[in-house]
Structures are given as C-alpha cells and as structure tokens.
C-alpha cells in the first residue's frame, strides 16, 4: 500500500514537469498495484462524454415520464428533478474525491478495499461492493436496451397507423429479439479500439445535448394547445389509479423518474485507466456529467411539460401510442398542427438514438468493471474475462457484459413483474454500491485517508455523511409499495430483488470466497 510520501513525491514530479502525463498516470497506477494494460487515450472530454451518455437525460426522462405524470405530475417533475439533482451532486462529490485518490478501473470495490485496508474484513467490503456494482451495471444495461426495444415497438406502432388505426404491435418475443440485436451491435462497437469509442462517446454526448435542445423547443412550439405556466409549475396530479392519496407519498414516489435518470456516473471512475491525468480528469468527469445533466434535463422536462394538456389521456393505454406518455405528447403535438404525426415519430427517433448511445456507453463501463473485477480474481473464470486483445480492449469482458444483460431481460417473456424486480437493482443496487465506499471513507478511513488532487477539504466528512443518508433514504423510499391494495401482482419486489442479491453475495462469501478472495491483488512483476 502506498503511503502519503509516495503520493507527495508524485505530485511534486508532476508540478515540476519532470514526467509526462502518461508516465505520471502509469507510476500512480503501479503504486496502486497494477501494471498498465489498457491504452490510455481518453481526454477529459472523452471521459465526460462516456459518462454523460450513460446518464443520458433523454433516456431516463423519456422512459419514465409517464411515472412522473402519474405520481404528482408537473410539480413532482419540475421540483423533484432539482431536489434529486442536488443530492446526486453530493453523492458525486464524495465519489469524485475517492476517485482522485484511487484512479483505477475497479472503481468502487477497489476503493472499499483500500478504505478498509486497516481492518481484516476489507476483502469482504470489496467483495460486497464489487458484486453490487457489477450486477447493478448489468441491470442498467439491460434496462436501457430493453427500454430502447420498447420505444422501437412504439415507433413501429405509430408508423403503421397507431393504436387506434390498426398499427402493428410487436409481440414480447419480437421485443426481446430487438433487444438482442441492440446488445449485439453494442458488443461489436465496444470491440473496436478505444480511439473509436472515444469518437463515438463524443458524438453521443453532442447528440444528447443537441437532442434535448431540439425537443425542448420544437415540441411545445408546434403544439396547438400549450399548458400555462401555472399548470407547469403548480399542477399536482393525484389521479394515479394506485390507491395512494397522500400528497407527500405521491411526490416521493414520483422522484423515481429523476433518481433513475441520474445514475451511472461511476463510469468516469471505471474509465480512469484509459484516461490521461486520471486523478484529476476522472473526478471532473463525474461532477461535470452530473451537473450538465441536471441543467439540460430540467430544460427537457419543462419543454415537454408545456406541451401537456390532458394527463389522463396521455396515460391511457387506449391512446395512439398505447399509453407511452411522452410518445403521445410528441405524436399529438405534430398531428394537431399538421394533420400528421410524422414529426413526432422523428422526435422519437432522436430519443431512440440517444438511448442507443446510452446503452453503448453502458457496455463500455460494464466491461471495464468486469475486466478489473476479474483481474483481481473475484469472478468465475476470471482468467478469461480480464484478457485484452491486440487493441488493448478487454474483449471478453465486453461480450460477457452483453450476454449477461441479454439473460437478465429474458424474465420479461414470462413475467413483467419479475423483470421489473430484476432491473430495480439498476437503481437501488447501484446506489448501495456508491454509498459503501463513501461510508467507509467517513468512518473507518476518516483519519488515514490520503486525498488526491481533487478533494473537498474540511467539508469532506459532511458531504460524505449527507451522501450516505440520501442513499439510505432512496433505498427505503423505492422499496415502498407503489400501489394499493398490495397483492402478488402489485407488490413492489425491489426489496426482494436487492435482498436476494445481498443473500447470494453473502452466502458465496461465507461458503467459498472468504477462503481465497483477499481483495485487489497486484499484477506487478518482481
């Protein structure tokens, strides 16, 4: 384990200009116990672009806009977004500080191991964090690409006449086939050299940014009937058909749209072994992706909501889009002005491309996590998954990520409830993985943590505790029932899924891993 003196010498070398940036990054990685194997070709912009594309406000808001409308409507979305955003910034700041100290592809699980290194149960902390992180990431990829398949289903429906005009409604088997094709293409793209991924990442970030501006201006502009400012900023919808009447409860459940969207920003940490000046650019990538997403996301919510008039009709399964709220907003806005909804379908195409890039970047982040976790021997067949090809790409980990994400979508063929329970790990499971190293930072490592160039100074512990408490809050919140009366079909299975994952991880530790997993291991020779 590197001491404070080693980091001080490295910082001095950098300041004096005695080492090139790549040499500095390589030396620091070696101090953390790893020989560089991945090509370090990403700039700050490229690192940010991958993460911004994963957060992708067009993906999360579009997918769950109906949830926001049903649970509180405009008030929940317009005010809930900045509330969730503010706490997400706090979580991001706490993560960024740790990322600066430990810039490795392992990210969260490596942080937990180092922060608990003075306690004998450090390997268990690493094991627990790592499995919540990687399963959460797989669930994110599954959720994103399945959402894209569902959106393509709606686009096909509207393009062939709509729900009320004899349009074609794809079956659940066709949706899975579309999902599989999307994952296949993502795996192929992620098999390319990192320079190509850098290009796609930048293009994806630009597409997300421009797409938001186009939609937030075009949709309300073409709508023949626009909502008033009073409706957008004061209307609170309680007509959710969920048997829930408490305004506070409804508002809190409506936060799911915002919190689901503001997720996946650990990608900047997982890309640090391929990023130049990683201990600075990795943390900045995390914070900038969150901050810019909050701003453009709020604009997107406002723009779309100004085109909303009749909430029940948007949520009705009998509308042209089959109940897909935001698709109905786009389609109806253009149809009411031009007599045709083609313009709305084009707008959905803009969103579909953004979701596609989100899934692509998610596979990128997944594969780096799988590469690092297997490098430390934590996964079955670890020697297979951490192999890199001639382009210094963890090729086997890429295809593993795509395959597991496909398998996680298969329960949708039998039970949508089972599928929703599985992908709920995407939000809660991943946030638990975010909170664990932060908790260790403000407790066990409070006195011996050595910060990197990006640090919060005297506010570090306060920010860390606020971050942990927020994650505890949303974990409880999103485990509560979302419909009454509670039956087998209406039960919120999130705590079952997350609890089941915890039991599996704990059991595997007690039965086997505690005998051989010692946490991150060096691959340095000599």
Automatic annotation (TrEMBL):
InterPro entries: AA/rel_permease1, AA_permease, Amino_acid_permease_CS
Localization in the cell: Membrane
Keywords: Amino-acid transport, Membrane, Transmembrane, Transmembrane helix, Transport
One cellular-component annotation, GO: membrane
Keyword Nucleotide-binding: no
Listed GO biological process terms: gamma-aminobutyric acid transport
Membrane topology, as annotated: Multi-pass membrane protein
Domain of life: Eukaryota
Single annotated GO MF: gamma-aminobutyric acid transmembrane transporter activity
Matching NCBIfam families: 2A0304
Family: Belongs to the amino acid-polyamine-organocation (APC) superfamily. Amino acid/choline transporter (ACT) (TC 2.A.3.4) family.
Name this protein carries in UniProt: Uncharacterized protein
Organism: Hordeum vulgare subsp. vulgare (Domesticated barley)
């Amino acid at each position: 384990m590197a001491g404070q003196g080693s980091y001080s010498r490295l910082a001095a070398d950098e300041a004096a200009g005695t080492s090139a940036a790549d040499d500095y990054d390589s030396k620091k990685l070696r101090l953390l116990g790893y020989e560089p194997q991945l090509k370090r070709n990403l700039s700050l912009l490229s690192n940010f672009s991958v993460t911004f594309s994963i957060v992708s406000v067009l993906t999360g808001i579009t997918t769950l806009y109906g949830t926001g409308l049903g649970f509180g409507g405009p008030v929940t979305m317009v005010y809930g977004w900045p509330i969730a955003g503010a706490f997400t910034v706090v979580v991001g700041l706490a993560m960024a500080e740790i990322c600066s100290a430990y810039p490795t592809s392992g990210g969260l699980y490596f942080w937990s191991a180092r922060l608990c290194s003075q306690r004998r149960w450090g390997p268990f902390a690493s094991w627990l964090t790592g499995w919540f992180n990687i399963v959460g990431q797989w669930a994110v990829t599954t959720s994103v690409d399945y959402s894209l398949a569902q959106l393509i289903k709606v686009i096909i429906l509207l393009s062939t006449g709509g729900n009320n005009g004899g349009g074609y409604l794809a079956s659940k088997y066709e949706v899975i086939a579309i999902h599989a094709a999307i994952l296949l293409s993502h795996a192929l793209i992620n098999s390319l050299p990192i320079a190509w991924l850098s290009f796609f990442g930048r293009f994806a970030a630009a597409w997300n940014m421009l797409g938001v501006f186009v939609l937030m201006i075009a949709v309300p502009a073409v709508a023949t009937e626009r909502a008033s400012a009073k409706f957008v900023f004061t209307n609170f919808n309680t007509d959710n058909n969920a048997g829930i009447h408490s305004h506070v409860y409804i508002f809190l459940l409506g936060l799911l749209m915002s919190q689901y969207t503001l997720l996946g920003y650990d990608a900047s940490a997982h890309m640090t072994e391929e990023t130049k000046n990683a201990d600075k650019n990795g943390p900045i990538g995390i914070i900038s992706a969150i901050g810019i997403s909050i701003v453009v996301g709020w604009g997107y919510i406002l723009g779309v909501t100004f085109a909303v008039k009749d909430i029940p009709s948007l949520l009705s399964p009998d509308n042209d889009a089959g109940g897909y709220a935001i698709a109905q907003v786009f389609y109806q806005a253009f149809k009411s002005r031009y007599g045709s909804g083609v313009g709305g379908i084009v707008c959905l195409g803009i969103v579909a491309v953004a979701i596609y890039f989100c899934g692509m970047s998610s596979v990128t982040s997944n594969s780096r996590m799988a590469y690092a976790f297997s490098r430390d021997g934590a996964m079955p067949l670890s020697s297979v998954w951490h192999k890199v090809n001639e382009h210094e790409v963890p090729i086997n980990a890429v295809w593993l990520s795509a395959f597991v994400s496909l398998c996680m979508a298969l329960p949708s063929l039998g039970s949508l409830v089972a599928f929703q329970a599985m992908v709920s790990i995407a939000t809660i499971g991943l946030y638990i993985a975010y909170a664990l190293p932060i908790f260790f930072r403000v407790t066990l490592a409070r006195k011996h943590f050595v910060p990197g160039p990006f640090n919060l100074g005297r506010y570090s512990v306060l920010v860390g505790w606020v971050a942990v408490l927020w994650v505890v809050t949303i974990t409880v919140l999103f485990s509560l029932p979302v419909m009454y009366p509670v039956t087998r079909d209406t039960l919120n299975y999130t705590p079952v899924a997350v609890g089941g994952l915890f039991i599996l991880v704990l059991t595997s530790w007690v039965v086997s891993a505690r005998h051989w997993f010692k946490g991150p291991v060096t691959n340095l020779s000599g």
